[in-house]
Amino acid sequence: MHLTPSMAEAFGDWLELDRIQSALVDARPDLDGAFVLDAERPLLQTQRAGGDALLVARAVEGSAGRWIVGIPGRPDPELHEVDTQAEVVEIVLETLERSSTPTTKDTAAEGQG
Asked: Any idea what the Cα angle at residue 30 is, between residues 28 and 108, rounded to 5°?
């Protein structure tokens, strides 16, 4: 089987997302089991103690792919567009520091639907 360029790029996105998740758990072992990985696209989420989900997703526009970190907030949510895994990890860790520890994976999965 030969990978098309699109397939190789998608595989790379999933690999990067796995590295982001691993780096987050390495930095904060209490996050182990707190993430829900979307089955369809490179998207990772965790429920924050306040009940809203912090999202990390890959966005591709044209030939450029960037990571989006979505942080729900009232009155204004935050969207960070970054290029590197390290920036994603830094934003997520800072955001989680501002709130309390996320809930477990089972609780986060219940919030999906």
From this structure: 115
pTM of the model as a whole = 0.75
Q: How many CB atoms lie within 10 A of CB 51?
A: 10
Whether 20 contacts 88, CB under 8 Å = yes
Listed in sequence order, the residues at least 6 apart from 83 whose beta carbon sits closer than 8 Å to its beta carbon are: 66, 67
Task: Tell me the backbone φ, ψ of residue 44, rounded to 5 degrees.
Answer: -125, 140
Identity of residue 48: R
pLDDT tens, 84-110?
999 999 999 998 888 764 455 554 455
Query: Quick one: 79 exposed, middle or buried, by C-beta within 10 A (0-12, 13-18, 19+)?
Result: exposed
